[in-house]
Amino acid sequence: MQIFIDPIKYGVATGRIKVLENKLFTRHRMERLVEADDFSDQLRILAETDYGEFFENVRTIDDIEEALHKYLARVYDFLDELTRERNIISFFRLRYDFHNLKVLLKTKYKQETGEHIWSYLGLLDVQKARDSIEQGIVDELPEVYRQGVKEAMHRFEKERDAQQIDIVLDGELYKLLYGLAVSQRNDFLQDLVKIFIDLGNIKTFLRAKNLGRKKDFIFQALFDNGSIDKEIFIALYEEPLDSLLERLKNTPYAYLLKTIFKEEKRIDLSIFDKLADNFVLNHAKKAKYVPVGLEPMVGYILAKESEVNMVRIILTGRLNNVPKDKIRERIRDLYV
């Protein structure tokens, strides 16, 4: 997969993206959504934006998910057309393919069912992939996914643990993203992938501690190519949680760890997820100061994905009768 590196090619795209950034949701608009009288009022607020046409007949949580998927697909398609290159958008869409592959394998092994969690934001033909996996004809999958699926099947059939499917395919995804970022020779994108990997390793470490998994598990589950050597996590795994904070106190992750280690020994991973999302978005904000190049496009995609996630949290929270204060606590930072 070749990715273009000539910043001149980004000139027109960067100009359009700078205009689009002015239409991103502000804190004021998010607050209006939270404070809306009811779900119908939330839909009226969305109707003032480019989300409106996707929410005309939305009534349920499944409807919300479908509308947001279609909206995000249009964003990707627009950026694809704007740049006349698919590779940067592909960089982001690969994540949905690996999500789908995990669902397909778990469905095959009857570890998890529910087609409603498919994503159609990826590059892979889901129906063809499903046929290949169900029939055991993995060689028919595109090469980029083939080895990961074979290894995930091998590990599951050996250990009968569905988490092995996640571990193998997440590892394959990160390897692929890292290779793509290196091929760009772009520090911003390479740093982004390292952040994904570091946050993935920290979360794996914390989740394994919460679940009381043995050290052998984390040895298998950690990812390569982060800015923090995975051997550090392995060495500290059987030590008190504070040891990780002490070891990483001079890294950019110190604040995140200090915040979640404040109170109890068992970590609330939902708080970690919020802090991790904010960490990624803070990296994305650096793109706003790049006049032309790859960075504004990547920053805008990350900002748009975060915005979509915030709309999801607010709307589903309202339909589930979550108090406004609780919804507000879940909202991440904004790009603007």
Commentary on this structure:
This protein has 336 residues and is mainly α. The chain is built from 16 helices and no strands. Helix 9 runs antiparallel to helix 14 and helix 14 runs antiparallel to helix 15. The protein is globular, with a radius of gyration of 21 Å. It starts with 10 loop residues before the first helix and ends in a 6-residue tail after the last helix. Residues 1-5 have low confidence and may be disordered.
Produce the secondary structure layout.
Layout: H1 11-21, H2 27-35, H3 39-46, H4 61-83, H5 87-108, H6 126-134, H7 143-159, H8 163-184, H9 187-211, H10 215-221, H11 230-236, H12 242-247, H13 254-260, H14 269-285, H15 294-319, H16 324-330
Helix pairs in contact: 1-15, 2-3, 4-15, 5-6, 5-8, 7-8, 8-9, 9-14, 14-15, 15-16
- How many helices in DSSP terms? 16
Helix % is 55-70%
Taking pLDDT < 50 over at least 5 consecutive residues as the criterion, the unreliable ranges are 1-5
**Major beta-sheet overview:** none
Taken as a percent bin, the fraction of beta residues is: under 5%
Task: Give the CA-CA distance, first to last residue.
Answer: 32 Å
Radius of gyration, whole Å: 21 Å
Shape summary: globular
Question: How many individual β-strands?
Answer: 0
Summarize the structure.
By secondary structure, the chain is an all-alpha fold. It is built from 16 helices and no strands.
List keywords for this structure.
16 helices; 0% strand; disordered N terminus; 66% helix; mainly alpha; 336 residues; single chain
